[in-house]
Design goal:
The chain has 2 domains: 227 residues, Quinone Oxidoreductase, Chain A, domain 1, CATH 3.90.180; 136 residues, Rossmann fold (3-Layer(aba) Sandwich). 25% of the residues lie in helices and 25% in strands. The strands form 3 sheets. Strands 3, 5, 6, 9, 10, 17 and 18 form a 7-stranded mixed β-sheet that branches. A 6-stranded parallel β-sheet has the order 13-12-11-14-15-16, with helices on both faces. The chain has a 5-stranded antiparallel β-sheet with strand order 4-1-2-7-8, with no helix packed on it. Strand 1 and strand 2 form a beta hairpin. The structure holds zinc ion (ZN) (2 copies). Belongs to the zinc-containing alcohol dehydrogenase family. Keywords: Metal-binding, Oxidoreductase, Zinc.
């Protein structure tokens, strides 16, 4: 197969705007698939890299790691023989399949995950695309997919077959990162029962899907917390039983204890990454409670915990990466839940034409959309 001409949103330097560029993609390698993206969700991590807050992926680079599209071709060494040209697939995390966590069905914790996701290259350091106008190599393997590109070579491990109409797939594009992170943290790691209470801090995509997961698990009390009052009604729509505008509550820990009859919460999820919020989240825990860090905190930051309280209450504070999802199993489950009305992600997305990236980012920052999804065709 010859090289393929395509387009993509390229970042040339930290803090520069995404720029729509003509790109040339090389033919997929034997263990890759060529994917024509139809949709791509925009995740906070894409913006962290655009802003240069993490510097693992040099520029120019194409980000995007919530792709959804059609298989255009399949390399002869792709192991999953269930996949056919023309199938519609959702793209998720990349992983090595060899380390002990991959082998035990915890690929979100792949020990090579950071390299496979964040460097923007294949494991051998190569890139799949170049700028057409200069021939300069572009980092185009972000999370094994760089889905802000209309057509790209994708690692096999990223690909999950989608059983449903491609026209309806916009709402599922973010299964591969945002949704599985929120829902998976609750459903795969915390696993609340009908006797448990859950609090979620930060009501973006991850927080709202954590609430959906808590409702699916049957948690008796689901407390949604945000500093923006405008975010609270949607949390109620997707399953929160109690809403807290933390700006209006002088002592959030005391308030949550009051809401839970004085005991504190059994499970807490922080999607904000804000250090004082994380510290308060831990202080909210009931006996034997677990708090999870899911939002990305600043590099090098430290959280203060009271170890005596940790001991006396048998508390746990854990980090959860990508919801401990095993995408080939967990994503089809979430898709099925969505079809059954148990995972109402259709309430949180808005679709933008691919040319309207700037508008999508504007709306995301303004808080008028939770999960922007760009549509390529
Ligand atoms: Zn691995
Ligand atoms: Zn993400």
């Amino acid at each position: 197969m010859a090289d393929i001409e395509t387009i993509g949103w390229v970042v040339h330097e930290a803090k520069q705007d995404f720029k729509l560029e003509e790109l040339v993609v090389e033919a997929p390698r034997d263990d890759e698939l060529l994917i024509d993206m139809k949709f791509s969700g925009i995740c906070h991590t894409d913006l962290v890299f655009q802003q240069g807050e993490l510097t693992l992926c040099p520029y120019p680079a194409v980000f995007g790691h919530e792709g959804a599209g059609f298989i255009r071709s399949i390399g002869p060494k792709v192991k999953n023989k269930d996949l056919k040209v023309g199938d519609f697939v959702l793209l998720s995390i990349n992983y090595c399949e060899q380390c002990k966590f991959c082998k035990t069905k915890h690929p979100a914790n792949c020990i090579h995950g950071s390299k496979l996701h964040l460097f923007g290259t294949r494991p051998d350091g190569s890139c799949s695309a170049k700028l057409k106008r200069t021939g300069e190599s572009v980092r185009s393997y972000f999370f094994g997919q760089s889905s802000f590109m209309k057509t790209n070579c994708v690692a096999e491990t990223c690909v999950v077959k989608y059983e449903g109409s491609p026209d309806d797939a916009a709402m599922c594009a973010a299964m591969g990162c945002g949704y599985q992170t929120g829902a998976g943290t609750v459903m795969n790691v915390l696993k609340p029962t009908s006797d448990d209470s859950v609090v979620v801090f930060g009501l973006g995509t991850v927080g709202l899907t954590a609430i959906m997961g808590a409702k699916y698990c049957g948690a008796k009390q689901i407390i949604a917390v945000d500093i923006q009052a405008s975010k609270l009604p949607l949390a109620k729509e997707v399953g929160a039983t109690h809403l807290v505008n933390s700006r209006e509550v002088p002592d959030i820990v005391a308030h949550i204890k009051e809401l839970t009859g004085g005991t504190g919460v059994d499970f807490a999820v922080d999607c904000s990454g804000v250090i004082p919020v994380i510290e308060k989240m831990i202080d909210c825990l009931a006996m034997f409670g677990t708090a999870a860090t899911v939002g990305v905190p600043p590099s090098g930051a430290k959280v203060a915990v009271d170890p005596l309280q940790m001991l006396l209450y048998s508390r746990k504070y854990v980090g959860v990466r990508e919801g401990d999802s095993d995408p080939p199993v967990f994503i089809p489950k979430l898709v099925e839940m969505q079809k059954q009305g148990q995972f109402p992600v259709e309430k949180i997305i808005k679709v933008y034409d691919y040319k309207d990236m700037a508008q999508a980012l504007h709306d995301l920052h303004a808080g008028s959309v939770v999960k922007p999804v760009i549509q390529w065709f």
